[in-house]
Amino acid sequence: MKLRGIFLVVFIYFAAGKCYAESSRRIVWETTTISEKQQNLSFKEAVYLPSFENLPVYLEKIPLIIDDCNPKVSLINTHFEIITDSLISSESKKSLSKKIEIHSRVIYERKNAFLLVSFVPLKF
């Protein structure tokens, strides 16, 4: 199985209303050596959650201008690179698919609306 990681991500397009302007983000991958035979795949500010099989998760909380909008999130202008299979455990590989699943929802903190976006920037 060939794993692919997003190298450059330009995303977050809100089709409904003026909730937030189009925005871009960049994910720069790095590997850290855990032992002589094991390396870890990561990126700056990656989050590791058990619900995502301990794969690196992109997670961001974005302030919304309008409370009652229905923002749409999508990945655009993506660039993928092939990564070494040994960087991800076989258990984690089972949770990956050919399409990246984007999880998004509106949350409220102190009466302020935010869009919570998360996804694993890997596919095979």
Describe the protein.
The structure is a single chain. By secondary structure, this protein is mainly beta. Helices cover 4% and strands 46% of the residues. It is built from 1 helix and 10 strands; from the N terminus they run βββββββαβββ. Strands 1, 2, 7 and 10 form a 4-stranded antiparallel beta sheet that branches. Strands 5-6-9-8 form a 4-stranded antiparallel beta sheet, with no helix packed on it. The protein has a two-stranded antiparallel sheet with strand order 3-4. The longest helix is centred in the last third of the chain and has 5 residues, at 90-94. The radius of gyration is 16 Å and the shape is elongated. The model is unreliable at 7-17 (pLDDT under 50).
What's the topology here?
Blueprint: E1 3-11, E2 25-26, E3 29-33, E4 39-43, E5 47-48, E6 56-63, E7 75-83, H1 90-94, E8 103-109, E9 112-119, E10 122-123
Antiparallel strand pairs: 1-2, 1-7, 1-10, 3-4, 5-6, 6-9, 8-9
Label this structure with key terms.
10 strands, mainly beta, four-stranded antiparallel sheet, single chain, elongated, 124 residues
Number of helices: 1
| Number of β-strand runs | 10
Unreliable parts: 7-17
Structural class: mainly beta
Helix fraction by DSSP (H/I, runs of at least 4):
under 10%
The gyration radius over C-alpha positions equals 16 Å
Sum up the overall morphology in one term. Answer: elongated
Overall pLDDT confidence? 75
User: Biggest β-sheet, characterized?
Assistant: 4 strands, antiparallel
- Strand proportion: over 45%
Topology as a string of helices (H) and strands (E): EEEEEEEHEEE
Distance between the termini: 7 Å
